[in-house]
Amino acid sequence: MASSAPPRATPGSELPVCLDDVRRAHKTLSGIARTTTVEGSRHLSSLVGAPVHLKCENLQRTGSFKLRGAYVRIAGLSAQERRRGVVAASAGNHAQGVALAASLLGVASTVFMPVGAPLPKVAATREYGARVRMHGQVVDETLEAAKEYAYATGAVFIHPFDHPDVVAGQGTLGLELLEQCPEVRTVVVGVGGGGLLAGMAVAIKALRPDVRLVGVQAEGAAAYPPSLAAGRPTALESASTMADGIKVGRPGDVPFRIIDALVDEIRTVSEDALSRALLLCLERAKLVVEPAGASSLAALLSAPKSFEGPLAAVLSGGNVDPLVLQRTLRHGMAAAGRYLSLRLRLSDRPGALAALMSELSTADANVLDVSHVRTDPRLGLDEVEVELHLETKGPEHCVEVASGLRAAGYTVVS
Fold it and tell me: pLDDT tens across 44-66, in order?
């Protein structure tokens, strides 16, 4: 986990976005964006030692905060610009935000998406009214195609985070949060390009400079720590994380200036922490949240006693592909010690496996998968090796299961 230096400027400094911009954006979004709920979390509060509130932006229209910035940006276009239409590039959340915003404003939209984009996100973008064009294997290639389209057709390119109107629109979430949770002392927000954190920082630091703002990035896609150290946006050579919503290789120029000036700290979290956070959202909060949307909770789980409360964590999005959700939940259960893999040696005789299954049933371990090896030269002629994948109740139960098998006379190889 890494952190940045403290803010280098004050809310009064000249920045690309000010509180009045955010307030105007809030009026623009009246009747368009939902005022999403704030829910308390008893489990997280007990871990942190102070009240923890969840800002459920995963319940926003289109499933993420992106509608806010996209709508404010498109609403600010001139009549002539609107007639030319808009274009965007995205693998998911921004695509849907632009599609719905443009549709609500009567503007034609074209959205470029990577060839491998999840089918549910492609379908949703089309249903919101955009013309979808599949191009490129990664978002960078898709982005270049969208810019070329804008140059060739005159369509206005809608950047996902690097524009003052977009930042102001995302900042309306900060205004809402202060109204809903006036006692808050710390706000934790996931960070990709930085539009959401920057917008919230403008609103919160202008109204409550005492509130501590903490941004969270995935360890494998953390462009802000080196950029803040260098004093300018710096591109990563590569980025890798399950949290595709915050997988951005270079901070935006506009949000970087604001985050450099106003944000107190940037932390990084592991893939294990992200998957455990997503699992916690489902099991304890009963909320479907994508890995990027759960990054704020991943920071809490990684170092719960390092935050001053009351605390608010932003759940920024819930657009998770079912296949990704399945893989992430399995990873989260493994990270939480709720999967156990063992290799045992048994006598190769009828009934031996049934006896093992009976022993595991007594230990209350759920068998997910069993495989046999009979040809290993290390095995005796009358031995068989069995590999087991078990679902358990946690780390302590894992130890109990393994100890119980050894006590029952089984040879546990690993």
Answer: 999 999 999 999 999 999 999 99
| Average pLDDT, integer, range 391-400 | 79
Cα distance between residue 128 and residue 102, in whole Å: 9
Residue 379, domain extent: 338-412
CB 342 within 8 A of CB 405: yes
- Enclosing H/E stretch for 315: strand 311-315
Q: What letter does residue 72 receive in the DSSP assignment? A: H
CATH classification at residue 220 = 3.40.50.1100
Task: State yes or no: pLDDT of 5 exceeds 70.
Answer: no
Residue 123 burial by Cβ neighbours in a 10 Å radius (0-12, 13-18, 19+): exposed
Hey, which residues are catalytic here? 66, 316
Joined together, the tokens standing for residue 202 give 């403008």
Q: Are residues 303 and 380 in the same domain?
A: no
pLDDT at 228: 96
Residue 32's identity, in one-letter code, is: I
Domain end (from 135, 157, 179): 157
Residue 156 phi/psi, 5-degree rounding, is: -85, 125
Give the CA diameter of the chain: 83
Residue range 383-411: mean pLDDT, rounded: 79
- Are 366 and 272 found together in one domain? no
Instruction: Please name the residues in contact with 124: beta carbons below 8 A apart, sequence gap of 6 or more.
Output: 62, 63, 96, 319
Report phi then psi at 267, rounded to 5: -115, 160
Identify whether the C-beta of residue 223 lies closer than 8 Å to the C-beta of residue 217: yes
pLDDT computed for residue 379 by the predictor: 57
pTM: 0.83
pLDDT, tens digit (0-9, with 9 covering 90-100), for 200-242: 999 999 999 999 999 999 999 999 999 999 999 999 888 888 8
Distances (CA, A) of 280 to 131, 269, 274, 365, 376: 36, 15, 10, 21, 41
Alpha carbon distance 274, 218 (integer Å): 8
* Of the candidate ranges 26-30, 32-36, 187-191, 399-403, the one whose mean pLDDT is the lowest: 399-403
Q: Residue 89 is encoded by which pair of tokens?
A: 């590039």
Rounded CA-CA distance 21/52 in Å is 29
How many other CB atoms are found less than 10 A from the CB of residue 37?
Answer: 12
